[in-house]
Amino acid sequence: MTVTLNPALDLTVQAGGWQRGEVNAAQGAQQDAGGKGVNVAAILADWGAPVAATGLLGRDNAAPFETLFRDKGVSDEFVRVPGATRVGLKIVDPTRGDTTDLNLPGLTVSARALAHLQATLRSQPAGVEVVALCGSLPPGVHASFYAEEVARLREQGRFVALDTSGEALRAALTADTLPQLIKPNIHELETALGHPLTTDAEVLAAARDLIRRGAELVAVSQGERGALLVTAREAVFARPPRVTVQSTVGAGDAMVAGLISAHLDGLNLESAARRATSFSAGSITRLGAHLPPRADLDALAAQVQVEPAQPLTA
Fold first, then answer.
1. Alpha-carbon distance 84 to 77, whole Å?
2. Which reaction(s) does the protein catalyse, per the Swiss-Prot or TrEMBL entry (predicted)?
3. Has residue 64 got a pLDDT over 50?
4. How far apart are CA 241 and CA 225, in angstroms?
5. Fewest CB within 10 A of the end CB: N or C in the chain?
6. CATH architecture under which domain 2-308 falls
7. How many CB atoms are closer than 10 A to CB 12?
8. What is the rounded distance in angstroms from the CA atom of residue 64 to the CA atom of residue 253?
């Protein structure tokens, strides 16, 4: 199950060579139901994993999300709330190979809606092994929400993955109970820890500290450079193959989905790194949260360079 408190309708505009402060011509646009947990669920569904998605969804524009869930075969357990889900603007520049994000804060959440969502999480059957808490927190939700839910979910015996940022990540990383899987990007981890990580050794040390405090896998993504993946016994760096980029939106979400699928399949760290990196690389060749065909993913996974990081000591 994935949890998205602050989903978004992503309006992706393709504008090659656009200039800030100028009138620009766009070559195309499309709108997709998005948000980090929504994207993770969509990618897992593409892989063939059974998945449910929950969170808070505005009633006024729920149709695109409902269509996505129906088309992908994702079980829709979202709590409907009054109002419209926010829109996120993504400006893709194919000539530079980059994406600019403009994200609105989202709907203000009532105590009643939040309690309904928490009841949904508490009532999940034992067969729901993994719960992924994803994305930003909307107005009205305290920064400690994820940290508190991690503790409750782990008490239930769930495997908890966390992909968030800002104060929500800081609160989760300083809590007594950490998620089993933590996937920040390098900038999110620096912000949460309150200091820069300027060398590979410093990134590794930060990840190792989270492992010592109770996490089982820490994956620190670093854009096109790759990702560091650390467990209690191993640490590897996975470097992605070169691909033709359509949009980098959702690349981190695809990596989370890959790591979750690897956990469900019991893969070792190297195989998990290859799968997660192939998911991420494959997703950026598409607009929206979609995976390429399985054969293409297998080819990408074979091209991922997985190198041992500094050996870990007890």
1. 17
2. beta-D-fructose 1-phosphate + ATP = beta-D-fructose 1,6-bisphosphate + ADP + H(+)
3. yes
4. 10
5. C
6. 3-Layer(aba) Sandwich (3.40)
7. 21
8. 19
Query: Pairing relation of β-strands 8-14 and 28-34?
Result: antiparallel
pTM of the prediction? 0.93
**Composition of the chain by helix, strand, coil, percent to 5:** 40, 25, 40
Q: In the numeric block, which tokens belong to residue 99?
A: 């994406």
Pairwise CA distance, residues 89 & 25, whole Å: 16
Q: Is 200 a catalytic residue?
A: no
Predicted local confidence at residue 202, as pLDDT: 96
Provide the token pair at 171: 């609160």
pLDDT in tens, 79-96: 999 999 999 898 988 888
Phi-psi region of 51 (alpha: psi -120 to 50; beta: other; left: phi over 0): beta
Reported as a single tens digit per residue, the pLDDT across 178-193 is 999 999 999 999 999 9
Identify the sign of the CA torsion 297, 299, 304, 306: positive
- List phi, psi (to 5°) of 33: -70, 125
Cα gap 253→249, rounded to integer Å: 9
